[in-house]
């Protein structure tokens, strides 16, 4: 065992060197190929984080944020405090990347980290004394503590270093060949949200349950207003929901329609009572908050929650009435799909097994090496693909510079005369597939075009890998800003994973000798 296995020195502190820390060597595991591959992957990712400057950038941001929050001219930050901030920033980066790579929740990863010496080494939690790993809540705060623009800047730095060569013509991060960022394959998909199938009557059940549970919280804190037990409203709405589900399976005909209308009318009566009680309790909370043990921040959180449901529930009732009783069509852009994720949209794909999905539109741009150069959640509804091409190119140029994406490859959904003219103005080689069959046939006669579009099949696979292994079955966060941030984290973890699996430059024979 060499000395480097026992000692690790932080080579990228933001301002000054920190004290060397003695670390335990990793255990030697034999007979398990999967573990060896995992260890090699994490060791290479550790090297990439250091040599690319990614870790240094995150540490620098952590120190800047701490100085803004804590620094006082009379009492400058001590070295000990600065070292603690650096350690916390490094752990935030490494724990989040490792958690996403493991496809585990915060709770699962916290337990996994406590029992895995390999993960402890990678995340910087190993110690000669007691091992202290972040709890699930700490992991969540670490992940949310780094803003999305900083994560995207870190990812841009990683990709820029992957494509950079030194004055000897070698990759600065030790790749056998520098990454090629000149060609970009762009496609759009749906990032699913954590919502159930958006049946209209289920929205009424969800709202009733959430409002009554909020009232139960207030009653436990001493605020009470005369009303039946909140649990009875939840039980009644559950009975109506089961009855509605049974009526929906009766088949077609007038009996089915009449049964559904009757049940919905009963549900509307329950919702009306629930909303009246919610308004009373909201007013009671504002009037008598001082008599409870609720802090102003906790009271505001409860008030905002009630306000959200008081605003959304009438719209959900109207939508259910229009569709079930009025038997009228509600446009997709006006539908409420979830009371908890109001920004969720219907994404009509028309594919086998996924005719319609519910979530957010996600635009991905992939390089020839499988690196994701751009990942963007569309904030306002579902846009036509041909309106997404030029903004994607502009984001790429702003983030990575003018030498990136000199060739754009897309399917026919992104093609338009306006896009072709815009790409020409930007001096980007237009390799979008035209919508016209004659123009398509003519374009594919070019061998280079056929090669680029055969490669486009790999982008479909890349989207599948990214969604299944990094985003998960659905985005695990709530609210659009948090979901944007998680997509940025997942992109960084994916690119580190791809770069760690690429060929490493071999050492010169003379130097090795």
Overview of the structural elements:
The protein is α/β, with parallel strands linked by helices and 513 residues long. It folds into 3 domains: 3-146, no CATH class; 161-194 and 342-500, Nucleotidyltransferase, domain 5, CATH 3.30.420; 200-334, Up-down Bundle (de novo design (two linked rop proteins)). It contains 18 helices and 8 strands. It has helices at residues 3-6, 33-51, 54-70, 79-102, 106-115, 117-123, 136-145, 148-162, 200-220, 230-248, 254-288, 296-325, 389-400, 417-425, 437-443, 447-471, 480-500, 509-512, and strands spanning 7-8, 21-22, 183-192, 345-351, 354-366, 372-377, 407-410, 429-432. The longest helix is centred in the middle third of the chain and has 35 residues, at 254-288.
Gap between N and C termini, in Å?
21 Å
Oligomer: single chain
Kindly report the name of the CATH homologous superfamily of the largest domain: Ribonuclease H-like superfamily/Ribonuclease H
Number of folding domains? Answer: 3
Largest sheet: 6 strands, mixed
Please tell me the CATH architecture of the largest domain by its name.
2-Layer Sandwich
Backbone CA Rg = 28 Å
CATH topology of the largest domain: Nucleotidyltransferase, domain 5
